[in-house]
Amino acid sequence: MNHLSRIKFISVGLLSAWLMGCATPAADTASQSGATTAPALGKTELLWLGQAGFRIKSPGGKIIVIDPWITGGPKTPQPYKSDLSALGKVDLLLVTHAHVDHLGDAPDIAKLNNTVLYGPADMVTPLTTLGIIPANLGHRFNKSGSVKPYPGIKVTAVQAEHSSLIVWKNPATGKNESHPAGEAMGYIIELENGFKIWHMGDTGLFGDMKFIAERYKPDLVLMPIGGNFTMDPEDAAYAIKTWINPKRVIPMHYNSNPLATGTLAQFQAAMQGSATEVVPMTEGQTLSF
């Protein structure tokens, strides 16, 4: 090989090596399924605490607790029922409205973790004025308002068709008192990798479910199906099939109150023919997305 040929050979080899080093690996098709997350951030983990209560571990490792009816919940799994610290360090605390099966242990969790309780403005106000939580641990916001408590995490308050009332035992009299607590809400919870969860709270049917789905495009919907206080299985299935059409739905707010008689089997039957995947959970179960 002459001198010029040798230089050409070396140059081509170096160029090939450089191109190979700069090439981008093909995307992991599994990570694009919509239910999983970018490998660098891990997965979203959901633990069902019963009724409408969930413990969510975000892809970035933040612990989010919503509607924690734990010590009084008939289906709450151990060890959470007897020890609120078993939840771990709670980074973000959300409450959709003030009924006992949603507000539940949220004030105690807020004080235990020195964590702000985020909720409807006119629910948080009586919580602080009655001394149930200190003022610095309550954050008030309302429908279409949003908060960004941590980098990459955004929570937007959306409509729910329901009521809200605080029942508080006055320590001075020993008697229960009822206090208005604003309007119930749902939440769109967007996590660090863009995965969106719509926790509907307690709600009946309303036409703007279609608007919320179109505006925020949730990947996963946590939906009440128990009836009496909320949608029953047939109404919940109607909303999913007609207005929302998410990739996945987890039924909640059933199996804990004898007045809410809707069942998982009824919901699954009503969902036949839908492209949405029904993801059933049992209390205490954890799923990853």
Reconstruct the topology from this structure.
Blueprint: H1 3-22, E1 45-50, E2 53-57, E3 63-66, E4 92-94, H2 100-103, H3 106-113, E5 117-120, H4 121-129, E6 138-141, E7 146-150, E8 153-159, E9 165-169, E10 176-180, E11 185-190, E12 196-199, H5 209-216, E13 220-224, H6 233-244, E14 248-252, H7 264-270, E15 277-278, E16 286-288
Parallel strand pairs: 3-4, 4-5, 5-6, 12-13, 13-14, 14-15
Antiparallel strand pairs: 1-2, 1-16, 2-3, 7-8, 8-11, 9-10, 11-12
Helix pairs in contact: 5-6, 6-7
Task: Kindly describe this structure.
The chain has 289 residues and is of the alpha/beta class. It has a single domain (39-278), classed as Metallo-beta-lactamase, Chain A, CATH 3.60.15.10. The chain is built from seven helices and 16 strands. The protein has helices at 3-22, 100-103, 106-113, 121-129, 209-216, 233-244, 264-270, and strands spanning 45-50, 53-57, 63-66, 92-94, 117-120, 138-141, 146-150, 153-159, 165-169, 176-180, 185-190, 196-199, 220-224, 248-252, 277-278, 286-288. The strands form three sheets. The protein has a seven-stranded mixed beta sheet, covered by helices on one side. Strands 7-8-11-12-13-14-15 form a seven-stranded mixed beta sheet. A hairpin with a 5-residue loop joins β11 (185-190) and β12 (196-199).
